[in-house]
Specification:
Helix content is 74%, strand content 2%. It is an all-alpha fold. It folds into 2 domains: 203 residues, MFS general substrate transporter like domains (Growth Hormone, Chain: A); 219 residues, Up-down Bundle (Growth Hormone, Chain: A), CATH 1.20.1250.20. It has a two-stranded antiparallel sheet. A hairpin with a 5-residue loop joins strand 1 and strand 2. The chain is globular and about 65 Å long. The N and C termini lie far apart (64 Å). Keywords: Membrane, Transmembrane, Transmembrane helix, Transport.
């Protein structure tokens, strides 16, 4: 702590405790930021983001990821390529996110568009995970079915909070980056805690026991549905649902034909699909290979938790330094760094780190931190761009459509990675060609740069779709009745018809 004497204009002086002032800024800065968001956007929205992104997806998702990997490897005893292909199937509910989005936008339950879907998602998640945790000798495909149901529950909750985020991003465009930062920081901090606990919990209660514990984050999702602040829609005519579904599909199709929308959407799919996912091969090598690190369960969880610090650093760096930079420039440098960071895996698999005197434990921690940080930096501008591509009136539906395209890219990446592992004969006991799989993955990560021209050059804070696409009241004006009307698609459908 440093005490300095500063002279005042009236001839007096005052002692300034610089260390204490710095401490206050560090501690109270995030608190003031959260209070500002809660004041501008309502506290229930901030609570929902923290609960869903931080606890359900961050903490619960990280626990579920590690539990699933050990469940497939040790309980179901499948090959790494098979595990990668099967777990990718559980992402299908994320591919059909537009269906959940249309439901939240056009089909209110008991007069609400969002709250009942939070409650429904929580119930589905609790039931599916309880079924996996309490049944012994569960058949592989039946277990996969219940995993897919729990994934659907998380997807429904995710698309609902995404709709709220996209809606607020349009109503408060100056806070769009802050909202995405809140989402990412919540997810990263939750993942940090979840990964830290995952290995210990898997060791103590096994992967099935962890599935049982994951019912609590889903129960919290239902709590969000109870307390969430939302305008009531009185007198909704359910006879109009079919027409509203048709209108939603028509509006999405006409909006997607806009070059300002389909071009960045295509880039996001390509950048994800061509970044081949071979994680299962690396996971089996980390834990089972005789010439590998042979990490224990607790070690795996601890390493992944330290890696989450990199994700937090990436989100923080974006918020402080990069959120005002143009989209295309950010995508260029983050994609290059993403390809280069993959070379750390190659060094580890070839055991070159040992020749440099770097132990496996230390090197893989550095690898995880760097990879997670760059991955977050790569993802953040795409998230902001996605939120700004949503037309006014079908925020949930269209954000879900764009995110489903991204999830299709992730699933394609997993399947292509599984095919690569199978072709190179990487199995539970044979890892001789794993280095080649890592090298090919790194080369493929560079390929999206050839279609970088699809990304807009615009600044992240000023970029917006044409007014005829956004709708009449995209400037954020209008009373509560007008907001309800927008949520029911009328303004967008009318503006599209005029074109």
């Amino acid at each position: 702590m440093v005490v300095e004497e500063q002279n005042l204009e009236n001839g007096g002086s005052v002692h300034v405790v610089k260390g204490e002032s710095y401490f206050r800024n560090v501690v109270w800065g995030p608190v003031r930021w959260l209070k500002m968001l809660a004041r501008e956007l309502h506290w229930s929205f901030v609570f929902g983001v923290v609960s869903l992104y931080g606890i359900n997806q961050g903490l619960g998702g990280s626990l579920g990821r590690v539990a699933t990997e050990y469940y497939m490897k040790d309980v179901q005893k499948v090959q790494p390529s098979e595990s990668q292909a099967l777990t990718a199937i559980t992402k299908i509910p994320w591919i059909i996110k537009p269906i959940w989005g249309i439901l939240t936008d056009v089909l209110p339950m008991f007069g609400f568009h969002r709250r009942p879907y939070f409650i429904l998602a929580g119930v589905l998640g609790v039931v599916s995970l309880l079924f996996i945790s309490i049944h012994s000798n569960l058949h592989l495909y039946l277990a996969l079915f219940w995993m897919t149901i729990s994934s659907a529950a998380m997807a429904i909750a995710d698309v609902t909070i995404d709709a709220c985020t996209a809606y607020n991003s349009i109503k408060h465009p100056s806070l769009a980056s802050d909202m995405q930062s809140l989402c990412s920081l919540s997810s990263s901090i939750g993942a940090l805690v979840g990964y830290f606990m995952s290995g210990i919990l898997v060791h103590l209660v096994g992967p099935k026991g962890v599935f049982g514990l994951l019912t609590f984050p889903f129960a919290l999702v239902s709590v969000v549905g109870v307390v969430f602040s939302e305008s009531h829609v009185p007198g909704f005519s359910y006879k109009q649902v079919n027409q509203k579904f048709a209108d939603a599909g028509k509006a999405m199709w006409r909006t997607m034909k806009c070059s300002d929308v389909w071009r960045p959407s295509l880039y996001m799919y390509i950048s994800l699909a061509l970044s081949l996912n071979i994680h299962e091969g690396l996971f089996y090598w980390f834990t089972d290979a005789k010439d590998g690190p042979l990490f224990a369960q607790e070690t795996v969880g601890f390493i992944l938790s330290i890696g989450s610090i990199g994700s937090i650093l990436g989100a923080t760096l974006y918020q402080l330094v990069l959120k005002d930079h143009p989209f295309r420039g950010l995508c260029l440098w983050t994609q290059l760094l993403y390809a280069l960071s993959g070379m750390l895996d190659l060094i580890l698999v070839l055991r070159l780190n040992l020749k440099f005197g770097l132990p496996d434990y230390l090197f893989i921690v550095v690898d995880e931190v760097v990879s997670q940080m760059i991955g977050r930096l790569k993802w953040m501008p795409l998230l902001v761009l996605t939120s700004k591509l949503c037309p006014h009136g079908i925020e949930g539906t269209f954000f879900a459509l764009l995110m489903s395209i991204d999830n299709a890219g992730v699933m394609t990446s997993s399947w292509l990675g599984g095919v690569l592992l199978h072709v190179l004969k990487v199995t539970r006991t044979e890892f001789g060609n794993l280095w080649l799989a890592v090298l090919l993955r790194n080369v493929m990560r560079v390929s999206p740069l050839f279609v970088l021209f699809l990304v807009p050059k615009g600044d992240q804070n000023t970029f917006k779709l044409p007014d005829e696409i956004m709708g009449e009241d995209s400037d954020g004006e209008g009373d509560e009745k007008e907001e309800t009307r927008n949520l029911e698609l009328a303004s967008l459908v009318q503006s599209v018809d005029r074109r």
